[in-house]
């Protein structure tokens, strides 16, 4: 039973927040197109040759996009059933951050700062997240990461200690003449190496340095198994529960995934299989 | 009960589409040898010194191969029980794409275009996929990827947003003098870094740039756990189901793998254990 | 039932080893702040420009930190219920190693040695491990790694043999003129390649060298699946056991995780599910 | 019940093939030490400066090691209960290959060939595999890899096709002036990129080239999930079976791991849980 909207506010609300009616879908698709276009323009504007040719046009378009997004933001605040809740939500904050930088660029006309501000508009692309299809999958990934976040934090701490020690050792072994000018630079090299990125801008030249580097590489290569194992195991548990957990008809509520240690649904309190 | 083929069409059909008779096997093995040979020739022909010595021979061979594959394609269309269905299938399209480029090279004699066209012949190797042994394993991998495709798409979207933001930030931090000439170039560098490829053609030089780069590397290194975890968990579920799912004698149909959320076989509708 | 501490020793013990009282928490937080500060100073002191400006200050601070940590170490020995056990424990040894290098730097005034010693102070950061929150997660990761340690050692041995053979082959194929000056250098290159680090300081130039390198890369890329698979499977088993293993009320003791092959709790001997 | 050995053959057999008696252990440890020493010497001998200083000593040592290993090989053949079976076994062949190269170096005195031959001695280190401790873990890894070998082969074929197509495309897009001199060189670059090694000796310079490279990197980064997922799932299945499969007292034979699709032990034919 859908109620025919009467007031302007209700009509706008259906267009902006619904996903099932034709006007709402058209509005969403158009919005996504404009967002992608504006991000592409920010990126292209940073290329010197393109800026020289189309800088003026881009400046106008940037302001047009900013005005569109501002009106859209105000409309969302206007039609939201709980305005403060929308404004505090992740999407509300992103919506606001998508328009503020252009206005700030008026009051701080310094070129360099203007560039910093310009970048934040890229955040606009996050609005694509509103597309409902992906929210559930994102929820799945988010829950698996949350459930294993402490293990991953512990792992990152181990990585941090390892690169600190190896970075300091490499500074002592290789020294300034081979590009290791300080311990922080050694630590940077150790991060480049343990993550297997390996730019090659700094690389060990001496025999003991290369032996230590080899050790670090093999550790980094093997240790990658740890976060992967943590997340794999967590997701396997979640799949297992989704499949075998709740028989037909006993699903407690709309919550389809439960923490791996949950005995009761944390949404509705019903005991789980 | 195999029926003895009577007409030419039936005989050809048994040679081309069957896998159990000796002529069919010989036909397949010969075809694979010719495909590999033609791919190797296309590759070698691109080496300047080899092209100078054998360019003429390669040109003749290329046309011989193209004619062989054209005849084979026409034969397949001729003997197919449902011709339109074969032509629309993935293999039908690949079979056609394997011969078209050589003909196109007649009408568009520009060297550069000719080279582009030449490359597509590499697609011929896909015909090897017809080898029945691998189809089932490919099906396994494909189902696991399909079942987790939305999660992986969500993950790729997250990567895209991250490299956009970090790429823009690096452009602002490092600037033109350190090789970051524009935001798109910064984004390219961020992709090279987050995927741990790390060419080193562009690399950060300043302290804040290196700190941001370190963050990106550790994120890329840790975040790799996500797609791996998704696919591992999916495959573990599939293995579990294959092993424990269907007891002997209750297998519903030839379908051996079911979606992890399936309550009924989606091929025959029989309820699953 | 907590007993009110009477003697100085008991009071100190509560502050140093407890985690629940306010003074103990403040003590821990302050200690962590000082440790991080001292590590940062060691690192910054290695940057030539910062050392020139603040070297004197850093020298004084270094001695202040060393004295603080020395007093703290002596206090810990004093209040420990079993002094020898604390001194032999991993944390006791790390506590001692955190202060010794500065004293050694008095007797061995050579700059180079002093630098080596300075580095070991980074180990101080390990004291952060005392933070109780992370101990359980660390225990989880440690048990999973221990349970799969022999498999991972076997895997590392396989990597070692592979890089030895490929490194020797590359030395023969590429030779001195392409940067492979000896077998050990070839082995170093093979480690850089199989771990997918790829600095690019040494890289193959000849056709057979590049073919062998391609093979090594694909092996390294595929073989990464082995340690990851081992740890993933081990952690999935552990999750499975934590979830389904012990029904409410039958938990044998405080031990929550059991080896995957355990029939009885190795802490209290009670039979497991 | 161990029978006291009487003949020389029996005594030797106990020393060489047993692991429980003191002489057998000492023999094994000594052998491993000699193997490692000989491998290290081969490696060091390839370093020009070390060869100049110790080349003569190394030459003598090399012959001493070769004679030791030859006597050992002949002894093994002599005491083996089934001589032909030992000689055909993997270890028998490796034992022989460990001594042949030095003898071959007499008849083919060319320096370059001599170097090729020298390398094969590194294979000696494989004899370490005899250490019984690791054999079972190796068996576990081997079974998991065998069970998933067809899936991994399919995956490698997919990688091969991808790098062929992308390598050819990059040759067309970037061309000779950016270091892509031929399609095989493009394929080499694609392998370096998809495996995330990224030497940086060849790297794209044009905008479409970098876009294609970015695509390849993200594919390579995501697709790594496939072999990892396959092996993880296989090992999880094996762990599951080891844990829950065979209740105490029903173990059919010494075989502890069964294929994931086995209904009966393939060693003794007993039905599996």
UniProtKB/TrEMBL annotation, chains A, B, C, D:
Membrane topology: Multi-pass membrane protein
Entry's transmembrane regions: 26-44, 56-74, 152-173, 211-233
UniProt superkingdom: Bacteria
Protein's cellular compartments: Membrane
Domain Ion transport, chain residue ranges per copy: 25-241
A family per Pfam: Ion_trans
Keywords from the UniProt entry: Ion channel, Ion transport, Membrane, Potassium, Potassium channel, Potassium transport, Transmembrane, Transmembrane helix, Transport, Voltage-gated channel
PANTHER family, alphabetized: POTASSIUM VOLTAGE-GATED CHANNEL PROTEIN SHAB, VOLTAGE-GATED POTASSIUM CHANNEL
The protein's name: Ion transporter
Organism: Prosthecochloris ethylica
């Amino acid at each position: 039973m859908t109620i025919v909207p009467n007031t302007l506010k209700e009509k706008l609300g259906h267009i902006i927040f619904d996903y099932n009616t034709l006007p709402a879908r058209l509005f969403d698709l158009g919005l996504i197109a404009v967002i992608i276009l504006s991000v592409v323009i920010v990126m292209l504007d940073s290329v010197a040759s393109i800026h020289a040719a189309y800088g003026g046009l881009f400046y106008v378009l940037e302001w047009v996009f900013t005005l569109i997004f501002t009106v859209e933001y105000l409309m969302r605040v206007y039609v939201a059933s709980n305005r403060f809740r929308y404004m505090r939500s992740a999407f509300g904050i992103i919506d606001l951050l998508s328009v503020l930088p252009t206005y700030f660029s008026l009051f701080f006309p310094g070129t360099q700062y203007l560039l910093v501000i310009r970048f934040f508009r890229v955040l606009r692309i996050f609005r694509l997240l509103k597309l409902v299809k992906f929210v559930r999958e994102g929820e799945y990934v988010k829950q698996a990461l949350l459930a294993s976040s402490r293990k991953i934090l512990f792992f990152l701490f181990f990585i941090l200690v390892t690169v600190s020690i190896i970075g300091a050792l490499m500074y002592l072994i290789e020294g300034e003449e081979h590009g290791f000018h300080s311990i922080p630079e050694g630590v940077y090299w150790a991060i480049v190496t343990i993550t297997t990125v390996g730019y090659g801008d700094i690389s060990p030249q001496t025999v003991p340095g290369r032996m230590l580097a080899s050790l670090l590489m093999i550790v980094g290569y093997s240790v990658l198994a740890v976060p992967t194992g943590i997340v794999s195991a967590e997701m396997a548990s979640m799949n297992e529960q989704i499949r075998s957990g709740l028989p037909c008809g006993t699903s407690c509520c709309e919550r389809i995934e439960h923490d791996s240690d949950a005995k009761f649904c944390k949404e509705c309190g019903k005991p789980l299989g």
